Amino acid sequence: MKIKKYRIGITASLALLSAFMTIAVSAANDTQNSAGQCELFNSAEILDESTLNIKVLKDWHVDKLTGTTRQKLIEINVAEWAPGQDYRIPVRMIVPLKGKAKGFHITGANPYEGLMKGSKPSDFEAKLLAGGVGIVKTHVKAPRAIPGKKGLQGKMERLFIKELNPRYTTVWIWPMTLMRATTAAYAETEYFEKGKVAGSGSSKNGISPAVALINDERFTATHSDHAFAYFSPTRSGDRQEVDKVDAANNAFFKAVKAGDIALKQKRAKWYQSVMVAGKRSMYKRAQKAGKSMDELQNLQNCFGSKLYITKHWDQLMKRDVDIFFQPGTHDYVAYDILWGAQNHAQLPVYYEPNGGHDQTPHDDSEKDEQNKEAFLWQHFFGGESLLKPPTSSHKVNQNKLNVSVRFEQGTQPINGRIWWMYDRAPEGSAPFLHAPIPEEQSMEMEFDAKTGVWTADIELQQGFSRIDFFSNHGLKVNGYKHYLSSPYTRVELPLNP
């Protein structure tokens, strides 16, 4: 059965910003900017309750929908985002009927109209509340989708291009929204006490809690779907890597023009918006506005020092936080999965095969995956442990690729499936997004109980120079189906395997 296309409500601002954040510069312009010279978030501003300017929309009350929670709806000032203009956003707080909530789960993926109404907790949220964990819901959306903010997004993009001030980006205001909502919740001392604060969501709502985790020590976990985690060479603007992407893009669109590749105009424009250093990116617009390479590189270094989980791994592990990423294999926000696996295999990752913004998942992708629930339950309540990132090894044996995956420590999975594709285009290019894993290039793995290894033998096709592969493995943890992936791996093949 075909799976419907996975759509997250992609915004132009996120597309443009993602493309902008990969800046092509020459080695001669490798101007370094230390983290100390880049203050993207200010702790005093985040924690200042007096500047929230809270407007109570509905004071604490027992919700009428279930009668099992107490709720309060407020509007807060996140910050003066545009000069002279406060950015005000609703926040709904939900606590158990009796006693205080200790910590909370916070999300921004809530429709504005829904926040205005009484909120019935989902089955999982009801379990969090029963365990004494609060719920905080706010609104992390494109500004143009928020009542009263029409035209603000375009204004902020113009200000950003003019001044190159990171504060004028959505990557600043979205995490800031979560952090300021946290300040508002903890100001309610009769209803909340300090505890764990876990964020989750997809796309902008996956990026935002990850950035908040880095920059706000009150946050203790992020479960981030379709969000960036790695500051890879391509993302940081390595000239050689970006040249590879440019060459792949040029060849791809030349083939489209010649009629060799069928591509609808709407899809082609989307690729141009989101692919690395695309013609419609903010980077190109900033260049056109007269910004120098040094200015753009300094800005990129500033972003790089504050936004990427793996850049702060040691510091985050000292804080004993929990992290889980679900980047998808075909996503423009999280295209650097190969480099990430090669350099940060310690990051727990689940790859949805062919998953990504506006992509159609593979037919064999896991349809019973409950990673968010398994992750949040374990974070707040403990119990059975989640899977730890496995190791994988491989060997080319005549016309076969032998793959072995081992979970060296802790919990062991009960199943495994592997996917592969040949001669994949450079990360972040249009053909990287366009060419899916073929439906037939997937198979179940076998488990050797004596060695504790999952294995697969892939029959190699002739005429390809390399093969990419990864595997997914799962089991039920604390009542929820949990999956984890082996490192995304690329193997160079002999000419005549």
UniProtKB/TrEMBL annotation:
Signal peptide limits: 1-27
Highest rank taxon of the organism: Bacteria
Alphabetical UniProt keywords: Signal
Record carries keyword Signal: yes
Name of the protein described by the UniProt record: Uncharacterized protein
